[in-house]
Design brief:
The structure holds two protein chains of two kinds.
Chain A (H helix, E strand, L loop, with lengths): L1 H11 L3 H41 L2 E5 L17 H8 L5 E15 L4 E9 L1 H7 L6 E4 L5 E5 H7 L6 E7 L5 E12 L4 H6 E5 H8 L6 E6 L5 H11 L3 E5 H4 L1 H39 L1 H10 L3 H36 L2 E2 H6 L13 E2 L6 H27 L2 H5 L4
Parallel strand pairs in A: 3-8, 5-7
Antiparallel strand pairs in A: 1-9, 1-10, 2-3, 2-6, 2-9, 4-7, 5-8, 6-7, 11-12
Chain B lengths: L2 E12 L2 E13 L4 E5 L6 H8 L7 E6 L2 E2 L5 H11 E4 L11 H12 L4 H14 L15 H13 L5 E5 L7 H18 L2 E6 L2 H4 L4 E6 L2 E2 L2
Parallel strand pairs in B: 3-8, 3-9, 6-7, 7-8
Antiparallel strand pairs in B: 1-2, 1-4, 4-5, 9-10
Helix pairs in contact in B: 3-4, 3-5, 4-5, 5-6
The chains are: A alpha+beta, B alpha/beta.
The structure holds adenosine-5'-diphosphate and magnesium ion.
Adenosine-5'-diphosphate binds next to strand 1, strand 2 and helix 1 of chain B.
Amino acid sequence: MKFLFSLSLKNIIRYKKRTILTFLILSFGIAFYIWMDSFIDGLNEQSFDNVINFETSHFKIQSEKYDEDKPFSEDNFMNNYKEVVTALEGTDFIESHTTRIKFPAELDNSIDSTPCLVIGIDQEQDKKVFILPEFIEEGSLKPGCAMIGKKLAASMDVKVGDFIYITFREAKGMFNSIEMEVSGIVFSPDPGTNNSTVFINLSEAKEFLNTEGVTEIAIKTNNRDKYKKYKVALQKSIPDYKIQSWIDMSQNFLAISKMKKKFSFIFVYFIIIIALVGIINTMLMSVLEKKREIGTMKALGFTDGDILKMFIFEGAIIGVLGSIFGIILSIILNWYFVEHGIDMTTMMEGFGTDNMGYKIIGIAKSTWSIKPMINSIIICVIASVAASYYPAKQATKLQPVECLRTIQ
Amino acid sequence: MFLEVTDINKTYYAGKVPFQALHDITLDITKGEFTALAGPSGSGKTTLLNIIGCIDKPDNGEVFIDGELLTEKNSDELAFYRREHFGFIFQTYNLIPILTAFENVELPLRILKQYSKSQSKDMVMQILKKVGLEGLENRKPLELSGGQQQRVSIARALVKNPKLILADEPTANLDLETGETIVDLMKGMNDEDNVTFIFSTHDELILKHAKRVIRLRDGRVIN
Ligand SMILES: Nc1ncnc2c1ncn2[C@@H]1O[C@H](COP(=O)(O)OP(=O)(O)O)[C@@H](O)[C@H]1O
Ligand SMILES: [Mg+2]
């Protein structure tokens, strides 16, 4: 065994250029695959962080009859939200909570108008759950004023200090139109917020809508991964409300990100296939070139099994070393993207306003994942062993003299 | 009787056209013989040696060594038999190019797995010395002359003390002088250690060194 293994090793270093080329193709293919996988995971992770920190929090509690499609229905408002908050007081896993009012409106700059979403926030509480303040690019949300998304501001041609009109239906169904000064601009990773959101103070939102209620309570827990358990607990303490976890709220994003990952991988699969064809080619040549040696070895008393093992070792060594080298390469490559990341601003702009669906602005960073590394070792070793098995098996089927007759 | 070959026939097919290379070959070899298979090119020498060495199969007929019927064995059994009892010397040497002279000679011992590392080292060095390659053991085949390569291949065939050495035209790729020293070397081993040799040649000058000559013509024994 050990002896056959050392013969395989010697055979591998025999054709240095070819071996190095095969190794490099294999390693680069693997490095690229691992890096791509880690980077997409990183994008998704960051997107989730942003969505949670900005839009969904860990849990959203709404009135049981809440219906997104009937924004002015009184049923959408929780007038007794203070009771809910009291009921949840003392729940050990809740770290903080805030209340928000969301309602649709028309935004008017006295020339054009466009639909927008108005969010009333309690600034003191809100920053304990969300990280909106970190995304304020200019100004702040002042009393009696509005803070709007950057893209929305650009498309409506308004700046800090300009006035806008928002027109909406209040909770009782009456139309209302309000003039507000823009006191802040938000540049958020969430395309929706950027493109069409207006933030105002919660107390003013209540006034405008003529309501005592809010549309949602956002909750931050001590561990977002325990969302299943926590949801059950929440449902127990406040059974008459609609409770959604961040996972419930991200179903679309999850599905899309999975699909995108698959799509990105078509390219990676292509590279890996090229690498595998390289191994198969190398092994085929290796067997064909050694046909006469195989004959000699058979004459010396090597069994068919010995010969087969020798080539399978050869394939396995190429596979193992190639994948290890590929993993090392990928670690170097990925390290840069984990530490420094890449500035997506310009890149994403090229893809229009939706950031390719990733909820990221600015620097996107990769992450470390073990799964693609293990995958590549398994894929490579199986593939290279399979690639060496077939030609070697063919060679063992021949009579020793048939191998020896080969002219070289 | 040591080696008995009875009624061997072998037909090759070039496409669909049959060509009978051996006709009813029957012969005996006793232990310690130094026998030449002589005959012009195409007379069937290689075919016969391959069948005796069990690296090719006859259409019918039998090969016995020490009463053991070899033509019945399967390919693994034959591999084990060759490993232990046969030594091959080829016209084209057939050394493994990535291995040094030492490693080439060591190869049969490595697969035999009967000797320790140091035992086999001694055996290899001793046989290399005997064939006159002392000091060249670390050279690769391509760094050796034809005559030296054939010496390595003789050492490789002899190192495990096999029952029978089969040498197919061992001198055909060498000039006459080198060829004669190679045959002398084999003969010396036959004299000293009583190793049984069968070698083929179409060269009458080399034949002079044989102790017994079996002549083949058109696939038949003619003497
Ligand atoms: N694989 C083969 N296919 C067809 N004919 C063969 C094959 N090997 C040998 N022969 C033929 O068989 C005859 C004997 O060949 P061989 O044993 O090699 O003779 P020798 O070694 O005496 O030159 C030759 O006529 C040769 O052409
Ligand atoms: Mg011949």
